[in-house]
Amino acid sequence: MITARKVLGALALTTAAALTAACGASDTGAEGAKATDVKLRMTVWTSNEDQLKLFNAIGDAYRADHPEVSSITFESLPFADYNTTLTTQIAGGNAPDLAWMGDLSKDLIASDALVGLTDKLKATEGWQYDDLVDSATKEFSRDGKLYAYPFSNSPFALYVNTDLLAKAGQKIDPKTLTWDQVAAAGAAVHSKTGKAGFVIRDFDYKSWNTLATVWTGFGGSAWSADGKTCTFDSPEMQRAFTFLHDAAFKTSAMPGPGTKADFFAGDAAFTIAQVSRASLLTGSFKFGLYPLPAGPSGKHAVLGQAGVGVLAASKHPDQATDFVAYLTNPANAAKLAQFFPPPRKSLLTGAKLAENNKKLSAAQLQEVVVDQLPNAVTLPNHTSPAEIAQKGKTALDALWKSDADIPAVLKSVCTAIQPILAK
Amino acid sequence: MATLTTTPDSDRAPVEARSVPDPSFWTTRRRDVLTGYLFVAPQLAGVLVFVLIPVGLAIWYSLNKWNVFTGKQVFVGADHYAALASDPQLPSVLLATVVFSGGVVVLNITLGLLIAVLLNRQFRGATFFRTLFFSPVVVSVVAWTLVWGFLLQDNGGINGLLHAIGVDGPNWLQHGDTAMLSVIVSQVVRSVGVNMVLFLAALQGVPSELYEAARIDGAGSRSIFARITLPLISPTVLLTAIITVVGALQSFAQIAVLTGGGPELSTTVLVYYVFQQAFEFNDIGYGSTLALMLLSFVMVLTLLQWQLRRKWVFHEQ
């Protein structure tokens, strides 16, 4: 009996303690809503210590002027699961106040899940809204209102392993370089050295949106400008995919499915990758960096972007918006530019970008970043990006066989993704 | 007896307890009931929090269209259940699920039993081989699958070995048939050790007198295995069958890491499809509907195996 009473007593005490704790938590929550104890959290996909150090330094400087903000946390999430984790946090009622975003931005903007930034940024003294490059803000805007600041604007470029080209007796002229010449030189390198020809980095026969770096030069696009109609089965796309198919299965200019080749480890003659990937160069071979080769429709530029926005579900949207304005002001944008090509005209010169870049020269940065940005198109981006990517990939898998019926496969891609585009 | 007279509430005999009004609320019966509940409470709490409430929520989500970005939910009734019938990918997903689960179950149980029979003998190195076959079980499934991913590349280790003996290996993960075979074999090699251990324990529980008697009666090895060993270990066969079927239907990491469900939909099994719909496409409602369908499959299969035990499980009551 005594034992039972003790147990019951313990239970009652535990319940009382839990209730007290709950009430305490509730009280804390009420205090948390006060402007004196604002805690901001921003999700990022980088785990680079230098980048996080810079963000923390900017956060500390902001807090020094804003004592009401007790902490600013930069939460590093793995890149591969970033969208899933961020979405789960939002769905679970644990949305961050601010977040980096890539292809999820369209969904977030369409769902009114982001706070509009334009008014705040324009009203902030010295922010210089007109300094932003139009091509950089397009993907993060709706009806003329900016919903995320495009802090990173990294064009895709052609990296060349000049040692491998020399070994295979190949010469290229970057000024007049075409995709056909890249394929021919790549095939020659493969046959003479056994190394890969050209590699579309991160494609791996899965992430087909990276192929926009090729099909844009052929005049192709994944869907119409309004995003409503699939154009995968257009003649331009057929020509682009025939080029890629031949490179993979006829000339071996590109490694076939299931074959790994890392340009930065010296395994390939060419790679298409963002300029920011230059950090992977180790100096183990001589390299060249040039704008994307010209296709049948001429020269073209393609851009990979990342933005930072404020979640509407944030507990402190005004404070978070104020922090974005501070984080991206001209002075801090200049600091961020050492890692991320900025969207500000005033910072976009080869010389300025080269100040903090140890791998690339001012001339290279001018040619592959500054000169490309104004006319660059972004990688295909649409609402429901994961569903489009998966259904497109499932249909495109049939293309990566030696006897593929290219027009039929491209038509099947449209059959698969058109219902999502039309939503 | 002194206890009965001096301590009124220590009524060990139920009759006496009923006949003598207990001044205390805590009768022995009540204490026993409370003790029983306290013992099962942690398990019940676990089932409630991690099973019953999530299942209840999944049912609720399946009846709603949920915009995960805004948190808005709209009640859509049975729309998601109706969508199952018109989902063009679902037949391929179900076929992949049946092929994968069937392949894993048959291969895992057969191989597990074969290895157990071979290792259920006294010979030098038996312990080493038992450890060897069991060791993949303790390896992280993601690490295991990543290694298999490298081995199965077109220019990977397996094709390198095949090339060394003059065989031109296929591009394992790029063709539907070989991709499915690859994920099945990867899964079986990793998990066969569990079944092997269970079968070994069962085999060592078979009385040796039965084997001796059978041999005296002139029974051969096959006959002994079919008529003595298999019936006597049939409860373990049932157990491994249930565990392996449920495990196969829940296999996710191998698919996610090795093939991502491809090529095309050849390795997109139901549990991976649930993940895609709910967490990649953010369609929590339809994903929950698919999850409930998967749950019903697991329940029906387990129930079926449990019912069939009367027919083929030896010495089952």
Automatic annotation (TrEMBL), chain A:
This is Carbohydrate ABC transporter substrate-binding protein (CUT1 family). Keywords: Signal. InterPro entries: Bact_solute-bd_prot1, SBP. Pfam families: SBP_bac_1. It comes from Kribbella pratensis. The keyword Signal applies. Residues 1-21 form the signal peptide.
Automatic annotation (TrEMBL), chain B:
Pfam families: BPD_transp_1. The chain crosses the membrane at residues 37-61, 93-119, 131-151, 179-203, 224-249, 255-275, 287-308. It is a multi-pass membrane protein. Keywords: Cell membrane, Membrane, Transmembrane, Transmembrane helix, Transport. Residues 94-305 form the ABC transmembrane type-1 domain. PROSITE patterns: ABC_TM1. It is found in: Cell membrane. InterPro entries: ABC_transporter_permease, MetI-like, MetI-like_sf. It comes from Kribbella pratensis. CDD domains: TM_PBP2 (cd06261). This is Carbohydrate ABC transporter membrane protein 1 (CUT1 family). Belongs to the binding-protein-dependent transport system permease family.
